[in-house]
Amino acid sequence: MRDVIEIETERLRLRALSMRDAPAIARYAGDPQVARMISSAPVPYLPIAAEGWIMTLRARAALGEDFVFGFEVEGAGLIGVIGAHKKHGSAAFDVGYWVAPPFWGRGFATEALRGFIAEARTLGALVAGHFVDNPASGRVLQKGGFAYTGETSEQYSLGRGARGIVKRMRYTPERREVSLGARVAAVH
Question: pTM here?
Answer without folding.
Answer: 0.91
